[in-house]
Specification:
Oligomer: heterodimer
Number of strands of chain A: 8
Number of helices of chain A: 28
Helix content of chain B: 55-70%
Family (chain B): Belongs to the ORC3 family.
Strand order of the largest sheet of chain A: 2-3-4-1-5
InterPro entries (chain B): ORC3, ORC3_N, ORC_WH_C
CATH architecture of one domain in chain B: 3-Layer(aba) Sandwich
Number of helices of chain B: 28
Strand content of chain B: 5-15%
CATH architecture of the largest domain in chain A: 3-Layer(aba) Sandwich
Largest sheet of chain B: 5 strands, parallel
Structural class of chain A: alpha/beta
CATH superfamily of one domain in chain B: P-loop containing nucleotide triphosphate hydrolases
Keywords (chain B): DNA replication, DNA-binding, Nucleus
Largest sheet of chain A: 5 strands, parallel
CATH class of the largest domain in chain A: Alpha Beta
Number of domains of chain A: 3
Low-confidence stretches of chain B: 17-27, 143-158, 581-588
Structural class of chain B: alpha/beta
CATH class of one domain in chain B: Alpha Beta
Subcellular location (chain B): Nucleus
CATH topology of one domain in chain B: Rossmann fold
Radius of gyration of chain A: 39 Å
GO molecular function (chain B): DNA replication origin binding
Strand order of the largest sheet of chain B: 3-4-5-2-6
Helix content of chain A: 55-70%
Largest interface: A-B, 120 and 106 residues
Distance between the termini of chain A: 104 Å
Shape of chain B: extended
Low-confidence stretches of chain A: 1-102, 125-131, 147-174, 176-186, 488-512
CATH topology of the largest domain in chain A: Rossmann fold
Chain lengths: ~575, ~675
C-alpha cells in the first residue's frame, strides 16, 4: 500500500505517464484516481474503466504473459486467438473509445512496421513511392512516439495485447487502421502522382530525393529511332501547323529592325535571346541593315557595297581566328599580311581600326555566340574586346538559357549589350544535327559510323591485324558485359523478368566504373595473339578505329584508360558473329 | 549559307521592287523620326559633355598625382638604382571600371611625360615568359606601327652578338635606345589576378635590369595595399619604392554623375524617379560601373525620343510651321493633357478647352509656354534638393543622405511632409548662430541658381547681432535643447519633472526671431518647390520614366523567357489551338497535343525526376502527340527533334547510369 500511495503522489505530480500505475491504483481507490487524473483525456479514462471491468482476469493474464514472454511465445500467436473474440465483446466498447484503443494498440513501432510489411506482401501493393512514403511516415511516427515509447514497449503493449480481448478486436478489424480514425497524425496521402504545385526549390528536392530516381528499364529499340535518311525524309514532308504563328512572331520582330539599327548606330551592341532559332531574324535583319547602309553616305550613288561579316557560331570548328580574319577582310585589302598569332592578330586589327577609322562601324553578325565552339577561354574575352571597339557593331544571338554566365562584369561592360527577347519558335535546323544529338544523348554514338554495316565496311578496308584487334575488343567487351550481368544477377532474385530487364539494374551499379576494356589488358591480349608486337603498333591500329569513331576511350575514376565500342550488347553480339563469319572466308 | 562558318553578306539576287516599297512604308510610320533623332543627339551631346567633365574632374587629382610621381621618378639618377619606383593604384572593387581608368591614365602619361606606357593584365601573362613576350611585343609594335615586317623581326633583331630570344629584355633595351623615353611605365592592371610568384619574379627581373632600363611599375589593386604587400615574398618588397594612390570609388563618381546629369538644374529631359531608382539600384547591386551608368542614361534618352512623338517639342526655338499636325493630335492624347482639360472644365473654362482642342496654333503656344514653365518648375525642384543637401551638410546632421536619394524622393512627390524634410527644418530652428552662418555661406555658394530667399539680408542681420557678441559662445535660438533644462522636484515623495526654458538674453531673443523667420521662409520655399512633377502638364514630354524597355534591355531574363516559351507556348504564339479553354492564369496547366513538340516534351521533362528514361518519355509523348498508327515515324522525328533541342539548350545531358537514360540538368524557376 505504501508504495502505491507514493506512486499515486507521483501520479498527481506528473499526469503525463500514468498508465501503468493507473490500473493498479484504480483497483484500490477508484474515486481518488478520478479526482487526481482529472486532467486526463476522457478516452484514456475510458480505457482505464474497461480494464477495471476486466479486472479479474487481468492479474492472471499478466502472470501468464510473463510466462509467455519467458517461453518466447510471440504476442502474435496470442493475437490470433483473439480473432475468435465474439462480437458481443465489441459492443461493450463505447463508440468513442474505439479509435484510441486502436491507436494505443498500434503504438509499437516495430509491430506497426511488421504489419505494414505483411500487408504489403499480401496485397502486393508497393510501388516505389509507397515504400518511400511509408518509410517517411514510419520515421515520423517513431520519432514522435519516442516520449512514451518506454512504457509502451515494455509494459503497455504487452499488457494490452494479452490483457483484454476487447481492445484487440478492433485492431483486427482495422487491419491497417481505418483512415481518418482521427488518432494521432493523419496518414500521409499516398498517390501515384507526385505532389502538385510545389515551389521550384521544393520541386527540385522532391525530384532529387534519395531513391526518387527510380525509372523503368524500358529501352528504345534501334528500329524506332530514326537515322539521318529517315529523319530528313519525314521532316521534308512535315508541316508545322504553327507556321502562321511563327510567321507572325517573325513579323513582330521585324518591326523592331529600325529600332535596332538606331541602337547599333548609337554604339550599342545587340544580343538576341529566346527560344527558337534566331537565324531567320538575323538573316532578315542583315538584309535590312544592308539596305539601310546602301542608303547611307559612302555607298549612296556609288558602286561600292557595304560589307557585313556574318559568323555562324554553331558550325562545328568555328574559331576566333575565323571571326577575326572575316572582320579583317572587310577593312583590309585582301593581300595584306596579317600576324599569325591570335592575340597579335586581334591587337593588329584593333590598332588598324583605331588608326584608319572606317567610314562606318563594321557590322558583325554572330549567330549563336554561346555555341560550344566559342565558349573556350580566350574567345569570349577577345570577342568582348573586339565588340568594345567603337568601329565594330556586334549583333549576336544566344540560344542557351544561361548564356550571360559566359561573361564577367568587365566583359559584359565591354560588350555593351542591349538584350532583346527574340523568341521565334523556329526549329533549329542549321544549329542542331538532330539525329546525331539524339544518338549522343542515348549513348549510341556508334550509329555515327553507319551502324554495324559501317563498321564492317571500315574493317574490310583495314588490314588483317586491325580486324583481329577489333574482334578482340568486341569479345572482351561482351565478356565484361556478361560478367556485369552475373555480378548483378546474384542479388536480384526476381526471376521472372526477361533478360534485358535484369541486366539494367546490374549495369547501373557497375557500368559507370567498368565500362569498356582496360587499355593495358587489351594490349597484352593483342600481344599474346600476335596482333601486334609493340605498343606503337597497337596505338596505330587503335588510331584508325578512333578516326572512324568505332572506338571511344575515357579515363575512369582510377585514371586507367578504358576503351569501348559504342554499341549495345545485342549489336555487339551480332557484330562479333559478323566478324567471325568474315574471318572464316 | 547557314552551314558556312563565316561569310560576307551578299544580298540575294531578287527583284528590286520589294525594298523600295518598304522604304515608303517606313516614311509613313516613322515620320519625323530623323528630326527627333536629331534632337536626341543634341540633347545627349550636352549630357555626354557633362559626363565627360565629371569623370575627368573625378579622376583629375589622382591622375595628376600619378603623373607627378612618374615624372618625378624620371629625374632621379639612375647610375646606382636603389629600387623601382612603384605606384600602388588602389582602384577599388569595381573591376569593370579599372580598364577605362588605366586607359585614361596611359593616355595622360604619354601626353604629359616623355615615357612609354605598357598596360598588361593577367589574361595575357600566365607566366614570366609570356609576360615578357607580351611586353616586348607591345613595345616593338609601338615604335614602328606602320612598319609592315616589324612583327617578323622580333626574335631575329640583333645586329651584333648572338640572336636574342623573343622574351629577352635585350629587345626592350634596344628599343629604349632608339625611342629615348625617359621612363618605361609598366602598368599591371589586375595585380590580384597575378600569381604571387610571378609578381615576385617580375619585380626581381626588372630590378636586375634597372641599371639599363628605367622602369616604373604601376599596380592596379582592387583590395588594399596591405594585402598586396602581403603577397610579395622574399626580397621583392625591398626592391620597390611604393607610393599609394587612391582612385575615386565608383559609387562616389556615380553620385557625382547623378547630380550632374539627372538632378542637374539645366537639363531639358529628365529621367523620372522610378527609372533613376532602378538605374542606381542596378549600379549598387550588380555592375558598379560608370560606363554602364551613362549607357543606361543614354538608352533612356534614346527611348524617349525614338518612341515619343511629342518629344519634338523639346527642340529649341521650335516654330509652329516646322510641325506636322499629327504631333498636336498626339499631344491631345496625352494623359496629362486630358487631366488638364478636365481641370479646366471643372473650373469652368470651357472656352479655352474648346480652343485647345480646335486650334493647333493655340495649342502650340500653350505647349511652348508650358514646356518652358515645366522646365523651370523641375529645375526649381532640383535646386530645392540641392538646398536640402547643403543645409544638412552645413548643420552636420548625422544621417548622410545623398542628393540622389533626396532627388528621387522629391521627383516622386514624396518630399513634402516626409520625416527627412521635417527633421531638417527642425534642426534649422535649433541651429546656433555659428552654424547658421555656415549654412548661409554654403547656400550663397549655390551661385547662378534661382533661390528666392534673400540670404544677404539674413547675413547682414546676423552680422549685426554678432557684432555685440563679446563672448565666444554662439547665439542660441529658443528651440535649442541647451536652453531647456529639466528640473526634478520632490514634493510629498513624488518626483515632479518640469521643463524650463532658460531665460533668453535680448540678443538670443533677436536671434531666435531671425532663425524663426529664416525657417519660415525656407519652409514656404520648399512647399512651392516640392510639387509632384508627374502631375505637371506635359510631364510626359519633360520626363522619361518608363521602365518597360529599359529593364528588359539591360537586365534580361533569358532563362525565364525560354522556360516560359516552353512551358506556355501560347503566351508567345497566341494561337487558337494551344490556349487553355478557361483562359485562366495558370495557362501552363493545359497540355495539349497541338503544342509544339518541344513544349510537350518540356512539360513531361518538368514532371520527371532527375533521371529520365527516354523510352518512357517517348511512349508518353507518343500517347500525347501521336496521331495515327502509321504516322509513328513522323512522331518519332518530332520527338527526336524535341529532345535534341532540349539537349542543345542544355536541359538534358547524356547519362551513363542506365541504358537509354538522360539526366535532367535544369529545374524550372530556380
Amino acid at each position: 500500500m505504501v508504495s502505491v500511495k507514493r506512486k499515486q503522489n507521483d501520479d498527481d505530480l506528473e499526469a503525463t505517464t500514468p498508465r501503468k500505475l493507473r490500473i493498479r491504483t484504480q483497483q484500490e481507490e477508484e474515486v481518488t484516481e478520478r479526482g487526481a487524473l482529472g486532467a486526463e483525456t476522457p478516452s484514456k479514462r475510458k480505457r482505464g474503466q474497461e480494464s477495471v471491468e476486466n479486472r479479474t482476469p487481468r492479474s492472471i493474464l499478466k502472470r501468464t504473459s510473463n510466462i509467455n514472454g519467458a517461453n518466447g511465445t510471440t504476442p502474435k500467436s496470442q493475437r490470433k486467438l483473439l480473432f475468435t473474440t465474439p462480437s458481443k465483446d465489441r459492443s461493450d466498447e463505447t463508440p468513442n473509445g474505439t479509435p484510441t484503443i486502436v491507436r494505443n494498440a498500434d503504438r509499437s513501432a516495430r509491430r506497426k512496421s511488421n504489419r505494414r510489411l505483411i500487408e504489403r506482401t499480401i496485397h502486393g501493393e508497393g510501388s516505389d513511392e509507397d515504400v518511400l512514403d511509408e518509410e517517411d511516415t514510419l520515421a515520423q511516427q517513431i520519432l514522435s512516439d519516442e516520449e512514451d515509447e518506454d512504457e509502451q514497449d515494455t509494459a503497455e503493449s504487452r499488457d494490452r495485447d494479452e490483457r483484454s480481448p476487447v481492445p484487440e478486436t478492433p485492431s483486427k478489424r482495422g487491419r491497417g487502421r481505418p483512415k481518418g480514425s482521427g488518432a494521432g497524425r493523419p496518414r500521409k496521402q499516398r498517390s501515384p502522382t507526385p505532389p502538385q504545385d510545389l515551389p521550384p526549390h521544393e520541386q527540385y528536392f522532391w525530384q532529387n530525393r534519395p531513391g526518387g530516381t527510380k525509372t523503368s528499364n524500358n529501352t528504345l529499340s534501334s528500329q524506332t529511332v530514326l537515322n539521318h535518311d529517315e529523319y530528313f525524309e519525314v521532316m521534308q514532308s512535315y508541316k508545322d501547323h504553327h507556321e502562321p504563328e511563327q510567321e507572325f512572331l517573325l513579323e513582330l520582330h521585324s518591326r523592331a529592325y529600325d529600332q535596332w539599327i538606331f541602337e547599333v548606330e548609337e554604339g550599342f551592341n545587340i544580343c538576341l535571346y529566346g527560344y527558337g532559332s534566331k537565324r531567320p531574324i538575323t538573316e532578315k535583319f542583315t538584309a535590312r541593315l544592308y539596305e539601310h547602309m546602301l542608303d547611307q553616305a559612302p555607298y549612296k550613288g556609288s558602286k561600292k557595297t557595304p560589307k557585313i561579316a556574318v559568323i555562324n557560331g554553331y558550325t562545328p570548328g568555328t574559331t576566333m581566328k575565323d571571326i577575326l580574319t572575316t572582320v579583317a577582310s572587310t577593312v583590309l585589302p585582301s593581300h595584306t599580311k596579317m600576324p599569325n598569332q591570335l592575340s597579335s592578330l586581334l591587337a593588329y586589327l584593333l590598332n588598324h581600326l583605331t588608326e584608319n577609322r572606317p567610314p562606318h562601324p563594321i557590322p558583325l553578325i554572330i549567330n549563336s555566340i554561346d555555341s560550344p565552339f566559342l565558349r573556350k577561354a580566350p574567345t569570349p574575352s577577345m570577342l568582348a574586346s573586339l565588340a568594345a571597339h567603337p568601329s565594330v557593331n556586334l549583333v549576336c544571338t544566344a540560344d542557351t538559357p544561361n548564356f550571360p554566365l559566359l561573361w564577367d562584369v568587365g566583359q559584359r561592360t565591354q560588350f555593351k549589350f542591349l538584350f532583346h527577347d527574340a523568341t521565334t519558335f523556329a526549329p533549329y535546323t542549321a544549329e542542331i544535327d538532330v539525329v546525331e544529338t539524339v544518338n549522343e544523348l542515348l549513348g549510341r554514338s556508334g550509329r555515327r559510323v553507319g551502324g554495324r554495316d559501317g563498321v564492317g565496311f571500315v574493317l574490310r578496308s583495314l588490314p588483317e591485324n586491325a580486324r583481329s584487334l577489333f574482334r578482340l575488343l568486341v569479345a572482351e567487351q561482351i565478356g565484361l558485359l556478361y560478367m556485369d550481368d552475373i555480378d548483378g544477377g546474384d542479388g536480384n532474385d526476381v526471376t521472372i523478368t526477361p533478360r534485358s530487364k535484369k541486366k539494367a539494374p546490374a549495369k547501373s551499379t557497375t557500368s559507370e566504373s567498368t565500362q569498356g576494356v582496360e587499355y593495358r589488358v587489351l594490349y597484352h591480349k593483342a600481344v599474346e595473339q600476335f596482333v601486334c608486337s609493340s605498343e606503337m603498333g597497337f596505338r596505330t591500329l587503335l588510331k584508325e578505329f578512333h578516326d572512324h569513331q568505332m572506338v571511344e576511350s575515357r579515363r575512369d575514376t582510377m585514371g586507367t584508360e578504358r576503351l569501348w565500342v559504342p554499341f549495345r550488347l545485342e549489336e555487339l553480339e551480332v557484330l562479333l558473329e559478323d566478324l567471325a563469319a568474315a574471318e572464316a572466308f | 549559307m547557314e552551314y558556312e562558318r563565316c561569310y560576307i553578306y551578299t544580298p540575294p539576287e531578287t527583284d528590286e521592287r520589294a525594298p523600295k516599297r518598304r522604304r515608303i512604308n517606313k516614311a509613313n510610320s516613322q515620320a519625323q523620326l530623323q528630326e527627333r533623332i536629331q534632337i536626341y543627339r543634341e540633347t545627349w551631346f550636352h549630357q555626354q559633355e557633362r559626363i565627360q567633365a565629371t569623370l575627368e574632374e573625378a579622376d583629375r587629382v589622382t591622375l595628376e598625382k600619378i603623373i607627378n610621381f612618374v615624372s618625378a621618378s624620371a629625374q632621379t639618377d639612375y647610375a646606382e638604382p636603389v629600387s623601382i619606383p612603384t605606384g600602388l593604384v588602389i582602384a577599388g572593387p569595381s573591376i569593370a571600371s579599372h580598364g577605362p581608368f588605366f586607359e585614361r591614365l596611359g593616355r595622360k602619361i604619354k601626353d604629359e611625360t616623355n615615357s612609354a606606357y605598357f598596360l598588361l593584365n593577367s589574361g595575357d601573362s600566365s607566366n614570366l615568359k609570356t609576360f615578357l613576350k607580351n611586353l616586348i611585343k607591345k613595345a616593338m609594335s609601338r615604335v614602328d606601327a606602320d612598319d609592315e615586317d616589324d612583327l617578323g623581326r622580333i626574335g631575329s633583331s640583333s645586329r651584333n652578338g648572338p640572336k636574342l630570344l623573343d622574351f629577352d629584355l635585350g629587345h626592350l633595351q634596344e628599343w629604349h635606345a632608339r625611342s629615348r623615353a625617359d621612363r618605361i611605365v609598366v602598368a599591371i592592371q589586375d595585380s590580384e589576378a597575378f600569381d604571387a610568384n610571378l609578381l615576385v619574379e617580375i619585380i626581381e627581373l626588372f630590378y636586375s635590369w634597372l641599371d639599363r632600363l628605367p622602369f616604373v611599375l604601376l599596380f592596379g589593386i582592387a583590395t588594399s595595399a596591405e594585402s598586396f604587400e602581403d603577397r610579395l615574398t622574399g626580397k621583392a618588397p625591398r626592391y620597390l619604392q611604393g607610393q599609394k594612390f587612391n582612385v575615386t570609388q565608383s559609387d562616389e563618381i556615380i553620385e557625382k554623375l547623378f547630380s550632374a546629369t539627372i538632378a542637374s538644374t539645366d537639363v531639358s529631359l529628365r529621367i523620372g524617379p522610378n527609372l533613376s531608382r532602378r538605374i542606381l539600384e542596378r549600379q549598387k547591386d550588380h555592375v558598379q560601373n560608370v560606363q554602364d551608368f551613362s549607357d543606361s542614361l543614354k538608352y533612356a534618352y534614346m527611348s524617349h525620343f525614338y518612341a515619343n512623338y511629342p518629344s519634338l517639342f523639346l527642340k529649341q526655338d521650335i516654330t509652329f510651321k516646322d510641325l506636322p499636325p499629327d504631333v498636336f493630335e498626339a499631344t491631345r492624347n496625352l494623359p496629362s493633357f486630358r487631366r488638364r482639360v478636365e481641370d479646366m472644365l471643372d473650373s469652368g473654362r470651357a472656352q479655352e478647352v474648346r480652343k485647345l482642342l480646335d486650334s493647333d496654333q493655340y495649342l502650340f503656344e500653350n505647349i511652348v509656354e508650358h514646356v518652358q514653365s515645366g522646365q523651370e518648375v523641375l529645375s526649381a525642384l532640383s535646386t530645392a534638393g540641392m538646398v536640402i543637401v547643403r543645409v544638412r551638410q552645413a548643420l552636420q546632421m548625422s544621417a548622410q543622405v545623398p542628393l540622389s536619394s533626396i532627388w528621387i524622393r522629391a521627383a516622386s512627390g514624396e518630399m513634402m511632409g516626409s520625416p527627412l524634410l521635417r527633421e531638417t527644418m527642425l534642426s534649422i530652428k535649433k541651429a546656433p548662430s555659428d552654424r547658421l552662418a555656415q549654412l548661409l555661406s554654403s547656400l550663397e555658394d549655390l551661385e547662378g541658381i534661382d533661390f528666392p530667399v534673400d540670404l544677404k539680408a539674413y547675413r547682414k542681420d546676423l552680422d549685426e547681432l554678432n557684432k555685440d557678441n563679446t563672448t565666444s559662445t554662439p547665439l542660441r535660438s529658443q528651440h535649442d535643447v541647451r536652453n531647456d533644462n529639466l528640473r526634478t522636484t520632490v514634493v510629498a515623495q513624488k518626483v515632479l519633472l518640469s521643463k524650463h526654458k532658460a531665460a533668453l538674453s535680448e540678443r538670443d531673443k533677436a536671434y531666435s526671431e531671425l532663425v524663426g523667420h529664416f525657417h519660415d521662409e525656407l519652409d514656404t520655399y520648399f512647399t512651392t518647390a516640392f510639387i509632384d512633377p508627374r502631375a505637371l502638364f506635359l510631364s510626359e514630354i519633360l520626363m522619361y520614366d518608363l521602365k518597360s524597355p529599359h529593364t528588359e534591355v539591360f537586365q534580361p531574363k533569358p532563362r525565364f523567357a525560354i522556360e516560359r516559351a516552353l512551358a506556355s507556348p501560347h503566351d508567345y504564339l497566341g494561337c487558337d489551338c494551344c490556349g487553355d479553354a478557361d483562359g485562366g492564369r495558370d495557362a501552363d496547366a493545359a497540355l495539349s497535343a497541338t503544342q509544339p513538340a518541344t513544349a510537350i516534351i518540356y512539360r513531361l521533362y518538368l514532371e520527371s525526376g532527375s533521371l529520365i528514361n527516354v523510352s518512357d518519355l517517348w511512349s508518353a509523348f507518343n500517347a500525347l502527340a501521336g496521331e495515327e498508327e502509321d504516322a509513328e515515324s513522323k512522331t518519332m522525328a518530332l520527338f527526336q527533334r524535341a529532345i535534341a533541342e532540349l539537349k542543345y539548350l542544355g536541359l538534358l545531358k547524356p547519362s551513363k547510369k542506365k541504358i537509354d537514360h538522360a539526366a535532367k540538368v535544369m529545374w524550372k524557376g530556380l
